[in-house]
Amino acid sequence: MVSLIRDPMANNLNIVSECDRFKVTTANKECLPPGASIIKVLVLGNKSGNEVATPPRHFELNGVSYSLPATVLRGAEGYMKVVNTGNEEIVWQPGEVLARAENCQELSSNSQVV
């Protein structure tokens, strides 16, 4: 699916492909105690070998608090770090949407990897 988005500032249309964005979901039931955990995730609709990236996020709602660092995932499944910054265990069922990923962009020649 392709969406057209009007940019009022530039007075033109931008083409945004839905295939460039992917839901990242839990693969299994997860019970996360406070602290850092690594969990298996699925990247819905991603092709084998295609690299996607999630931005860093922090969530806090109804006593549940956790952080997801920026992550690069390849293909339809992978592993993601989750930091439960709350005091209680977090329980997620399979298929819980954790983040949205986008296709990775190539680093410019001026970028440095540290």
**CATH topology call:** Deoxyuridine 5'-Triphosphate Nucleotidohydrolase, Chain A
Question: Given the helix and strand composition, which structural class is it?
Answer: mainly beta
CATH class (first level) name? Mainly Beta
- Number of DSSP E strands: 12
How can the largest sheet be summarized? 8 strands, antiparallel
Mind explaining what this structure looks like?
- Helix content is 0%, strand content 58%.
- The protein has an 8-stranded antiparallel β-sheet with strand order 7-8-10-5-3-12-6-9, with no helix packed on it.
- It has 114 residues and is mainly β.
- It has one domain (20-103): Deoxyuridine triphosphatase (dUTPase) (Deoxyuridine 5'-Triphosphate Nucleotidohydrolase, Chain A, Distorted Sandwich).
- The protein has no helices and 12 strands.
- The model is unreliable at 1-7, 13-18 and 107-114 (pLDDT under 50).
Name some characteristics of this structure:
single chain, about 110 residues, mainly beta, Deoxyuridine 5'-Triphosphate Nucleotidohydrolase, Chain A, eight-stranded antiparallel sheet, two-stranded antiparallel ribbon, about 0% helix, about 60% strand, elongated, disordered N terminus, disordered C terminus
Can you lay out the helices and strands and say which pair or pack?
Layout: E1 2-7, E2 12-17, E3 21-26, E4 30-32, E5 35-43, E6 51-54, E7 57-61, E8 64-68, E9 71-74, E10 77-84, E11 90-92, E12 97-103
Antiparallel strand pairs: 1-2, 3-5, 3-12, 4-11, 5-10, 6-9, 6-12, 7-8, 8-10
What's a concise summary of this model?
By secondary structure, this protein is mainly β. It is built from no helices and twelve strands.
